User: Which sequence fits this backbone?
């Protein structure tokens, strides 16, 4: 399988009143062709900061302290805006939470999708229109010729999100990052968009990262999962294995707090405390230390190394030597 994205030791900090604090700490992962990976974490886990940095759209306050991020073998950390504008849609694209804010209200939706092609490919107008209509159909839209000429406000939230997904896919990127793409939609439309992602994953050759705080949803859609907590990827592996045999105390607690996963007769679990505000975090040690029932002295000072159980990786001092 071709490696599409290699993230190594990525650390992103922000200045706070207590000094620079890591919102993302030393994360590493690879994505290969056809990978579909769920990135799960509560708010404040660093999942959005990590993916925005990989996409080159991090906030101007973000400080990339370490790491490398290679897309198709090319280092993208530190690319200028001009370099990114040529590079982004063909190599990596994103679907945001709010379709209404991702679309320009003054431009017809078909033209907005076509614009992406215009920037990145030297196709004729007819060819561009043909590709746009085809991509709209792949995204489950009907009557696409008519739809092409509509403005965003003339479409429902679900149709707007399908247009945003079409914009992301039209240049055929190698990596697609979907940042909680169903959050702003009602339950019925959410289910339709999830089905659309399942369809896309069958025909799409690239890799998909699907960000969510919802493990239930990730189980239905993604083959692999990475669990993030306070800036660290603490556990990763095949979704089935991570859910049926969680290793990290945080993942275990997370599962016990979800009705679908708690054991029969067991009360719903409440993880004590909360994710610390960035300014109160330590850059060292295990970030789950204050909330963990198994914490040891070493956990406060030293972040645990990867422990690999048949490809299922965890970072916790309960495992290994
Ligand atoms: Fe708990 Fe220590 Fe494991 Fe962190 S490293 S999850 S504090 S046992």
Assistant:
């Amino acid at each position: 399988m071709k490696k599409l994205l290699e993230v190594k030791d990525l650390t992103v900090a922000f200045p706070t009143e207590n000094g620079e604090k890591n919102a993302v700490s030393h994360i590493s992962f690879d994505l290969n062709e056809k990978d579909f990976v769920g990135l799960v974490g509560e708010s404040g886990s660093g999942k959005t900061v990590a993916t925005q940095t990989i996409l080159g759209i991090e906030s101007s306050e973000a400080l990339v302290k370490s790491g490398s991020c290679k897309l198709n073998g090319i280092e993208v950390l530190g690319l200028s805006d001009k370099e990114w504008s040529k590079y982004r849609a063909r190599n990596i694209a994103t679907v945001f939470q709010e379709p209404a804010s991702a679309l320009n209200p003054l431009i017809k939706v078909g033209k907005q999708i076509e614009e992406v092609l215009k920037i990145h490919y030297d196709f004729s107008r007819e060819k561009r229109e043909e590709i746009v209509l085809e991509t709209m159909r792949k995204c489950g839209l009907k009557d696409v010729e008519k739809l092409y000429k509509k403005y965003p406000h003339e479409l429902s939230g679900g149709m707007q999100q399908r247009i945003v997904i079409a914009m992301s896919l039209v240049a055929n990127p190698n990596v697609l990052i979907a940042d909680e793409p169903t959050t702003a939609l009602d339950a019925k439309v959410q289910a339709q968009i999830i089905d659309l992602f399942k369809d896309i994953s069958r025909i799409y050759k690239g890799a998909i990262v699907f960000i969510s705080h919802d493990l239930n949803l990730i189980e239905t859609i993604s083959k692999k999962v990475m669990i993030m907590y306070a800036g660290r990827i603490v556990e990763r592996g095949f979704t089935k294995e991570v859910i049926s045999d969680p290793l990290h105390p945080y993942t275990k607690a997370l599962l016990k707090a979800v009705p679908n996963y708690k054991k029969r007769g067991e009360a719903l679990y409440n993880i004590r405390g909360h994710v610390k505000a960035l300014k109160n975090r330590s850059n060292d040690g295990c970030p789950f230390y204050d909330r963990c029932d198994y914490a040891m002295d070493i956990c406060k000072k030293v972040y645990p190394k990867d422990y690999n159980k048949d490809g299922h990786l965890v970072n916790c001092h309960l495992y290994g030597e």
Remarks:
- The longest strand covers residues 3-16.
- The pocket of iron/sulfur cluster is lined by residues 248-249, 286, 288-289, 292, 294-296, 299, 304, 316-318 (CB under 6 Å).
- The chain has a mean pLDDT of 91.
- Residues 187-203 form the longest helix (17 residues).
